[in-house]
Q: What sequence folds into this?
């Protein structure tokens, strides 16, 4: 795999070799990608996908890496980060965004066009592609409530558009988690609203986040999914795990659902804290905490 020279194959494009993904993840942890590229267009992305397929190279696609733990051994093959594909446009009440556009930027553009419906995502630090993949949501709203179609590239290199109805959205789940398609962009249908009301709602949600979440530290947001009938943060608190630390990773004292990097954390530290939390909560309450954060890469 290492003998292939992707930089020579894709002259003029940004391609890096053995690049530490800790430089890109929100937790500031993670091993290297054999190859890392930043396509700026759908065609460039398709070129990398075709190259990987033709050379039997594993291919991983990530967005803003805000819901990701990359194990220390890193990721073999080619990793695409889509954040250079970031156009956002509005026609009437439809907002169209490339996969790499920041979700927060999309909410700002919606506000600038007096469009309501996107406010719930004002503080979610992911990309549009990652938000579609995760069916991201907060404060009673979810991507599935406003999305109307999704543009994808299949692993075979075929461009497709799915109506939202086939996306199989549910709590932190979507079709692309199952079929491996790469999200290239999405369309959101919003409603006409009042700028002042939209701004007030976004500011309120961001203030609530800042009050409750340890935004002053690197993290990957809520580490665990909400178990049916419980709240992960409360189970963790009731298990006396606030402040539990392994190396530089610590269960936040401000919001027990977050694991923060208090300095020098590694992915191994994160995984150790996650395993300890899962084991302790299961022993005490018989509830399995399933991770919401995606854990990828080699040990
Ligand atoms: C402080 C903080 C607060 C957060 N608050 C929330 C919240 O309120 N609600 C919420 O839902 N989440 C929240 N998150 C988590 C995270 O922001 C969301 O899950 C977001 O949708 C992830 O997007 P991303 O671009 O960062 O995805 P990444 O972390 O880059 O990737 C996540 C997964 O999506 C896949 N993926 C990413 N892009 C694509 C693509 N284009 N095509 C195919 N697969 C792709 C990756 O392979 C990976 O499996 C928070 C995170 C942080 C750090």
A:
């Amino acid at each position: 795999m290492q003998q292939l020279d992707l930089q020579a194959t894709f002259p003029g494009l940004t391609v890096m070799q053995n690049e530490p993904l800790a430089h890109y993840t929100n937790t500031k942890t993670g091993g290297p990608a054999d190859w890392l590229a930043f396509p700026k267009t759908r065609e460039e992305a398709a070129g990398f996908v075709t190259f990987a397929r033709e050379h039997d190279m594993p291919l991983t696609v990530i967005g803003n890496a805000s819901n990701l733990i990359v194990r220390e051994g890193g990721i073999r093959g080619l990793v695409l980060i889509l954040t250079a594909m970031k156009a956002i446009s509005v026609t009437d009440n439809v907002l169209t965004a490339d996969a790499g556009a920041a979700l927060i930027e999309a909410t700002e553009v919606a506000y600038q066009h007096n469009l309501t419906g996107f406010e719930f995502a004002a503080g979610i630090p992911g990309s549009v592609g990652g938000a579609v993949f995760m069916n991201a949501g907060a404060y009673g709203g979810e991507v599935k409530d406003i999305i109307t179609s999704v543009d994808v590239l299949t692993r075979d290199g075929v461009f497709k558009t799915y109506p939202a109805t086939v996306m199989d959205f549910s709590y932190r789940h979507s079709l692309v988690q199952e079929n491996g398609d790469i999200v290239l962009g999405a369309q959101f249908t919003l409603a006409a609203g009042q700028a002042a009301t939209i701004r007030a709602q976004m500011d309120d949600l961001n203030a609530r986040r800042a009050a409750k979440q340890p935004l002053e530290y690197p993290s990957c947001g809520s580490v665990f999914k909400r178990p049916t009938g419980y709240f992960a943060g409360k189970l963790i608190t009731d298990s006396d795990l606030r402040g539990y630390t392994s190396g530089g990773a610590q269960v936040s004292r401000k919001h027990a659902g977050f694991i923060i990097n208090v300095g020098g954390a590694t992915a191994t530290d994160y995984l150790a804290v996650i395993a300890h939390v899962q084991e302790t909560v299961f022993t005490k309450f018989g509830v399995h905490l399933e991770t919401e954060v995606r854990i990828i890469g080699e040990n």
User: Anything to note?
Assistant: The longest helix spans residues 267-285. The domain at 214-296 is CATH 3.90.78.10 (Uridine Diphospho-n-acetylenolpyruvylglucosamine Reductase; domain 1). Residues 26, 61-68, 82, 99, 124-127, 129-131, 133-134, 136-138, 176, 182-183, 213, 215, 219-221, 294 surround flavin-adenine dinucleotide (CB under 6 Å). The mean pLDDT is 97.
